[in-house]
Design goal:
Layout lengths: L2 E7 L3 H13 L5 E7 L6 H8 L4 E4 L5 H10 L6 E5 L3 E3 L4 H10 L3 E10 L14 E3 L5 E3 L2 E2 L2 E2 L10 E2 L7 E5 H6 L12 H11 L3 E12 L10 H18 L2 H24 L4 H17 L4 H10 L13 H7 L11
Parallel strand pairs: 1-2, 1-4, 2-3, 6-13
Antiparallel strand pairs: 4-12, 5-13, 6-12, 7-8, 9-10, 11-13
Helix pairs in contact: 1-2, 6-7, 7-8, 7-9, 8-9
């Protein structure tokens, strides 16, 4: 099989009904569409049986989350490329060919993503990946087209292929060999930051990741855990800290983690004192506590990653503080940031 388009579903009947037809209509003959289901209790499976019998299904006995759900699904699929696709993505007529042709012609590339635009406002980028992901020194991710909560309109300003630090898990094409060589998604993360962690490991192995804006898709975003959900806050903080521990070079680890202790508690007290959000305050506190509790489980992972890396310094991981650039320097868009 050339390409497996794999949609991980959990109680996403409405999303599948609305957006799966575009995936089927605009897929190529050399691709096969799969839906892997995390033990949904809605009508997702009945919908697939009645309206989309051509879609291959993989059924799980429980909700394994995003990361481990994909791992378990991809273990059952033999394909040259995987395309991880959220159920709330509307694809367009010419979405697959630019991605496949790029991967076929660039063996140094492990993964790529399309331009990710908002389903709600199709002239704007979408938060979850925009036009390709980057990261600052302290682990804060940002994108061409999105920094923190500032999302840019798409005026063609990033309509050029670019090497990036991470590709969005909402729509990521990846070589199956690279996926498994890098150790796959970390199933312990459950959800959030898992694709950035995987991409960082790929970059440390010397592999490259790109955004191909000739391909465009539209993403709803926040369907499973909407923004402001305390569980989302917990997973983001815990997993981001764990990702840093696993992948940071030894000479940066203590320095970055000291700063993150300060910055995380600063964020926690801001949510409490300024935003009056007690739930998120508790979520950040619990995330840091959970990180330290499970840290010993990742010691072997860190040793293996550091021993196998072929490059420590990746230019798409920027050497500055994004918080300083955004709040102190008032640089709100990607093009305003230093390189």
């Amino acid at each position: 099989m050339k390409l497996a388009i794999v949609i991980l579903n959990w109680n996403g009947e409405a999303m599948l009904k609305q957006y799966l037809p575009t995936v089927l209509d605009y897929s190529r003959d050399d691709s096969t569409v799969f839906v892997a289901d995390n033990a949904s209790v809605d009508g997702s499976m009945s919908l697939l049986q009645k309206e989309f019998p051509m879609v291959k299904t993989i059924l799980f006995d429980k909700n394994y989350g995003f990361a481990e759900g994909y791992n378990k699904a991809l273990q059952q699929i033999d394909a040259e490329y995987y395309l991880l696709l959220n159920s709330d993505v509307e694809v367009t007529h010419h979405w697959l060919t630019p991605l496949l042709e790029f991967m076929d012609n660039h063996p140094e590339a492990a993964a790529c993503q399309p331009k990710l635009l908002s389903e709600a406002d199709k002239d704007s980028f979408e938060y979850a990946g925009a036009c390709g992901g980057y990261m600052d020194r302290f682990g804060y991710p940002f994108c061409r087209g999105r920094i923190f909560d500032t999302v840019e309109s798409d005026d063609g300003q990033y309509d050029y292929m670019e090497e990036i630090f991470w590709a969005t898990g909402a729509c990521m094409m990846i070589r199956s060999k690279d996926y498994w060589d890098a150790g796959a998604l970390d199933g312990r993360f459950f959800a959030h930051n898992e694709e950035i962690d995987l991409c960082w490991r790929l970059r440390l192995l010397g592999r490259k990741i790109y955004c191909i804006p000739e391909s465009e898709v539209y993403h709803v975003g926040g369907g499973t855990l909407p923004k402001g959900n305390p569980m989302k806050t917990f997973l983001n903080f815990r997993n981001n800290l764990t990702m840093l521990y696993k992948n940071l070079p030894e000479e940066e680890l203590k320095y970055v983690m000291r700063w993150r202790w300060f910055l995380d508690y600063l964020a926690a007290f801001e949510t409490l004192l300024i935003n009056h959000n007690v739930a998120d305050f508790k979520a950040i506190y619990r995330a840091r506590k959970a990180f330290h509790k499970w840290l010993p489980d990742f010691k072997a992972d860190r040793e293996r990653i550091q021993q196998s890396c072929v490059t420590k310094h990746i230019k798409e991981r920027r050497p500055y503080s994004l918080l300083w650039q955004y709040y102190a320097k008032s640089r709100k868009t990607f093009s305003e940031l230093p390189f």
